Amino acid sequence: MADLKKILVTGARGNVGGAVVRALADSGVSVVAGGTAPEEMKMPDTVEKVEINYEQPETVKVALRNIEGLFLVAPPLDWEAPAKVKPVIDQAKTAGVQHIIFNSALGVDQNEAAPLRVIEKHVMASGLGYTILRPNFFMENFSSGFIAPMIPHGGIYLAADDAKTSFISTEDIAAVAFAAFEKQDSSAEYNLTGPAALDHDQVAKIISEVSGKPIQYQALSEADMMQGARDQGLPEEVIRYMAVLYDAVRNGWMSVVTDDVQKILGRPPVSFGAFAQKHAAAWK
Fold first, then answer.
1. 130-149 tens-digit pLDDT
2. Which residues, 6 or more positions from 265, have their beta carbon under 8 angstroms from its beta carbon?
3. pTM as predicted
4. What is the DSSP letter of 113?
5. Could you tell me which CATH number the domain at 7-138+170-193+256-269 has?
6. Which partner for 73 in 3, 11, 49, 60 could form a disulfide, CB atoms 3.0-4.6 Å apart?
7. 77 with 238: CB under 8 angstroms?
8. What is the pLDDT of residues 205-221, one digit of tens each?
9. What is the C-alpha separation between 174 and 26, in angstroms, rounded?
10. Contact assessment for residue 238 and residue 229, using Cβ atoms and an 8 Å cutoff
């Protein structure tokens, strides 16, 4: 990490970006948290905050000043992400960034047309030192993400059938990112999963046990899940992206378990049970 004097983390208001900021700051690294409405970010006192709006190139240019390491997060569930993120990569090279870590998603390397895969390829062709992280669905989706609001109503409502997913904690993703920056692990690609694949009935049972509340999983049809998202006011493009993601889940493509976290960190990834125990207050 000695060669990377200052690291910028984009998407710092999100689950992954926030976890990466905390992991770097806790280790004494000079870190800049970038995102929209930086004044609303809750960050350690040592963390510098800066506005980044991918559609406002001047904010990106300012944020990249004196930055040597970049943790890059694409706008979530956005089909237009490549058009927004590729110029950020180009600006990072112009600004003198030495190493870029791109937070992608598990399985996108199997589809060359996937938005995140298009961004991956641009990172690889940039001439910068790079690491690609492809994590599976986050455990934090249940405690603070898009699934969390369902749980107080006693259920998890998704079009996942009985398929399994090897959920991973964002804290493990952040630990891998820290290690990759520390080693400047270049031209590397990692597929990150938790230690086991669980179906949503198993997840609901674990949350029920730690929260003391009966939580059940209800498998929806894709049409019903999409309609529920519309009822919540989500944009149609986001809903279409969600449909693609859960099609992948139902096809069993998200059940793979890798040992990349173990190899990088020298320890197994956090289990969903341990995660749930740590975050039980979120469901009480």
1. 999 999 999 999 999 999 99
2. 172, 175, 176, 179
3. 0.96
4. T
5. 3.40.50.720
6. 11
7. yes
8. 999 999 999 999 999 99
9. 12
10. yes
